[in-house]
């Protein structure tokens, strides 16, 4: 036991420590501490004997010095591992701040180790932060994170942009069928050939090849990038009427700044305005030029899929005659896509945002559409709106072009070239001036004085221009429709179309021959030329039904396929309105041989024309139904079929008339040609004349400014509607039919036969069934809706200053371009998804026909784009100049082979009610009598029926097979 006690004592003694003792707080004696008491230890010289551990507490005085507060034995029972150090080391956790005084605590386990303290090592834990510091740190952290995110995002964007550019470059190579071998180092710039708003154009030489090089300064980089990216739109470069792109590059200019180059094919004639300022053009050239531009634009506007390639619809947004280039063969291409914009399924503009401004306020002021000038662009349907803007400018381009068409100014000087509105506003119209003139006053370029001639070509041409620059954007033609119109115009023989009129006006027709004429000319119906001739002489149906008297009558003709023309009338020379054996009325003149000649077309040539106007490049590749010519051909064929049937009936009627009227030498019964004899490829379309206008220029002005319904009425009825009625018998006589005009019918006394009525009747002598009801027009007046159209050439400033500067300066060069200095609208709009969630092929466009999408696989969209009856077409305005064909809906079955007399009432209704323009439709009535005797209630053969002004009716008089209404006048059936 004593040994154990000794061991314990030794052990206790070994654990004892001598610690410094002080207590500045209580001034206590060292021995007064509880622990010391417990252990019974006695302090020695401010030291105290402790059990193993000492401690010290120091405070930091304001002077910075550390003073002990308390030192002694550390008796805290805690972690046994604590305080085992030989040095009294202050730890972060043992430091605290009280009342702004820092206290340092330490403990240790060596004798006198608490006499002083040691600072914690620098790696020791940092003291806890204050709240403000923490908040600050958090804030800074968040800010840094945000900046990092932004930087990352921008970096991503830049990377994407670079990727895009490099992709574009690849596309460029692909599209231009070039490769990296195109070495711009070998490019030589030879001469400056033009200067635009965004760059200068040089003729250059690259590897022996003549090229055009458009050089953009760095300020116009965006324009350059946009133009390049549009050229790279898949499939675009395959189109014949889009300028050929050869490559793009950037390099350092002599001043050290970057400049950007676009290489293009060199077009020796330069731009269209330049060419037209130097040359006049003939009809076919002019048609070909304008048709080419239109074809290019139509293609640009069309959304296409071919295999895995997708071509977005693109709006050009700067269609001007300076942005059309002329090839050596005088065909034209669309160029300058610096402001162009991809249009896709989604709506690109949102009202109110900056992009919207970029979308709407671009272009050349002179060619800006009224809705752009007036800030009324339909931003809810940008795709359509932007296409309509293009078509407006296209109309102006037509005007500029055809004013230089020598064939439209026979016997007089062709006026100097003028830009649109140049006569009114000079070379540099301001935006405000254009706003007033075009948007507010609805003014449009005037048609030259000599264009008032109501020839077929001129009327169709003017109508097409007007339909392009219509104030109502939605009523404008689509580019596809315009293309079709131009194609049809190009098929017209101007010589006939223009000169016939004049010949007739001047009474140049030869006197009637004694024999029956082989020519029957329907002065109201128009012209149909068929392609497939067989060498037989052509026949022309000529029939006077226009009420307009005198030399200013409309003079159209129907010229059928020669096979048909041969239909047993080769020896017949008969003017249907001539009294038998009587003097030939002045209006009833047979066609001259010259006219006959002009009606004949070389089938090969026309075939070539047809082929040439198709999108054969694409078609051949895809073998899909893209080709417009196919569709056109469909239209043409349809037209020909309808007209041919009309011709058959007319012909029959004429023969019957001749028979009844005692014209000798004519067989009384001639079988109608069958439908299967129809021409396979008609060459031209039926185009209607109007009666000559008698309104004065001033009244035109007023009418034009009012953009009245007047024109709408006329366009509504100015086309032929052909209706085949009943089935049984062969038609014998058909009379027709004018509105607001006087008409000669039959072969009797002109005084009797003249019908002066709002409604004209064709009394039909028939074996029981009326055969044909024809409404051929025709009111008076003008067609130009927008403004005074007669150009007073005297007022036109002539002279050199009117000419555009051929090389370096455009009259518009310094025109303000109403575009903010921001990137021209990011043209890459969402591809497939429309805002309303529809996919490209599905989005409707509130009846707009401007959203043309072509599915290469089916061609269906393309078909719809051409079909005037589809809801996609604006306001029912037909593409074709031929009402009877173009307005026939696709589900209108063609007339049957048995003579075409089986059309149902429904079909009749549909066909008759197919308006030229829906909104502009005005009533017309057709009455067909099935009685051989005129009803006494008829006034000059016309029943007195109150014609509704808001509806149209077709009446079958006396014994018609179909009766659908009970309230009609007796004996008259209203369909
Ligand atoms: N590929 C080309 N071949 C021949 N001449 C060209 C070619 N490209 C342009 N030019 C000529 O250079 C002129 C300037 O063309 P550019 O496209 O730079 O300007 P612009 O179309 O006149 O004006 P903007 O660019 O402002 O619309 C054209 O008017 C044309 O005469």
TrEMBL record:
What are its E.C. numbers? 2.7.11.30
| Region: Disordered, residue numbers | 836-903
- Is the DNA damage keyword given for this protein? no
Q: Please tell me where ATP binds in this chain.
A: 214
The record's annotation in SUPFAM superfamilies points to: Protein kinase-like (PK-like), Snake toxin-like
One Pfam family linked to the record: Pkinase
Q: Give the membrane topology.
A: Single-pass type I membrane protein
A GO molecular function assigned to this protein is: transforming growth factor beta receptor activity
Which spans are transmembrane here? Answer: 135-156
Alphabetized, the UniProt keywords read: ATP-binding, Kinase, Membrane, Nucleotide-binding, Receptor, Serine/threonine-protein kinase, Signal, Transferase, Transmembrane, Transmembrane helix
The family annotation for this protein states: Belongs to the protein kinase superfamily. TKL Ser/Thr protein kinase family. TGFB receptor subfamily.
Protein name in the entry = receptor protein serine/threonine kinase
Q: What is the lineage of its organism?
A: Eukaryota, Metazoa, Chordata, Craniata, Vertebrata
